Amino acid sequence: MGQYYYIVNLTKKEYLHPHRFEAGLKARELASSIRVMAALALLLTRSDEGGGGDWTDTSGVVGSWAGDKIWIVGDYDSSKLYHKSEKSYTEISDKVIPLLKKDGFWDYYA
Length: 110
Known about the structure:
Number of strands: 4
Number of domains: 1
């Protein structure tokens, strides 16, 4: 069966669920998903100036994880953070996905 992973923000108590990005939950599946990696790039981008090719967002999602404590944590990990995030953290994939769908990014990398 194997170990499954979530991307968890311990600072904000939020997480991303790879299945929502049409990716697998195993480490290599997650790492090879352009959509999951783009979601991380979107959340971790930090710049106080805009430029060509930057994410466009007025919701405050872009860069919202910059500087936070982020783990890619498995369900076998002794911290139990994977299970704790499912129960008590906010899953924010639905805030990120619309930004990836803007300008055809989502479909381009299907």
